[in-house]
Records
---
Amino acid sequence: MYAPLNPQNLDENPKYRTICGNHVTSSTKFICYLNIIGLCLSSIGSFPVGLIFTIPLIYAYYIPFKGIEEIRSRKLVPILILSGINLVTAIAVVIFCIVAFLMGELKNNFGTRFDESFIISIVFLLGIHLLWNSWCFVVILRCYQYIKDVKMGQTKGAQMI
């Protein structure tokens, strides 16, 4: 059975809501705002060389605003890729720290080993970082899917139910 997509029905769909109850478009905008602010703050300490990386990244995090406004899912691809890279990196760092901890290879600059409580707190913080990156990736991916579905509904497309 085929049914035309209705953008109003998509707005109410829990698939396009976050854990907090916000819509994925507003959460994607929030993620982009945070990244732009973070990039601007980090470029202050590395001026002017840091601008080589900062300006393209700020642009990449600005593009989704236009993509959401114009209902063009392709404009979310750059931050979807960046978010995926952040997620893979966070997973790798957590795995590295756990393996290094189990092998007893973590040492400070003076050559002495770190306390076990310090390592556990670092792994805990990295776990929170991993959860944040996972949430961001899922929200941006859902926003991408939402915009594709809205575009399909506007072009009188149909989706199999």
Note: Residues 20-154 form one domain.
---
Amino acid sequence: MFKSKLLFFSVLVFLIVNTLYFWEGALGGFNMLLWPFLAIVVTVLFFGALRQLYFAAKEHFKNKQRLYKACLVLLLLALIALRPYGIINYSDFESKSVLIAGREGVANCTTTLMLKQNGRFKMRNICFGIDDEIGLYTINKDTIKFSNPSSRNTNRYDYAVLDSTKRNLIFKKGNKVVPPTILAVVHNETELR
């Protein structure tokens, strides 16, 4: 008989992949372990479904439940393969980005700051894992003040200042420059000048 565990784990992996947008930033460095684990699980599920199709063919497709479940598992795995970041692009539902600044560091590590039109910001650090920081911001002349951050970083910045060239943001805590130090402004539709 067809093992319902195969269908259960296929649905579970499908849900994990499709909700990853909401919680991948909370994993930090463990995010590096998630993708190889999911790849192994999907491979095992794929061969398990092929095995069930073989048994269904051997039985001359008399067991319809086995055939339907195996096809459903293969459909879910195909959707995962075609859309590895989920069927729905949740970032389309976010507010428009009015300022984007970023930099690339050593080992292809990137930091990106996005100021949204609705007064929220998102700082994403990708370096051997993903860390997201989300909060509110206000702009006063050439300064962006950050508040209510969702961060595990205790030595975080309080504000960022646009430098005299109007191309870089310098992050500060009090009078000290703190990481991410400087981000290059890529897109700016704000009153920050």
Note: The chain has a mean pLDDT of 86.
---
Amino acid sequence: MILIIIAYISITLYEWWYLNKKSRKKRTRSLVLGSAAGMFLCLCILYLGKGRWTVGEMLEGIFSPIDHWMKAGR
């Protein structure tokens, strides 16, 4: 997990440097850094929950009700 944090910090610092170098708008900076923070949060949730559930179970939980709804209409 420490290596993941170091990688995300280095990527975020590089993005910040690039955005400042190219004089990007404040909205662009917010979108880029916000998406990086969101991806980091999702990665942390996946890392911490890797023993409790799998991605397949998550997808089944999302799409199973939709599948049942579609089959009910037949």
Note: The chain has one domain: 2-72.
---
Amino acid sequence: MEDQDDLDTELVKLVYQATECNIQRFHNVIKIKDILVESVGYSQSFVEQRMAFFEFDAKERSVSTIVYLDVPLELEKLEVTIK
């Protein structure tokens, strides 16, 4: 009889441990989901910043190209007016 009680007690303990493990697993899954959502937000922010950088860089290059191309023309105009 005592052996049966010990087995029942051990079975109850194992069921309780399994339930606790399932609860802990659920909480860990929620934490992982939150971390993934946060990382997607950071990734999206990073992509937006990189795109803004590329746009700024492209504008800066086009302005420098325009300025670089206009400088010789302005110099020629100056030389013509000086002579």
Note: Helices lie at 2-82.
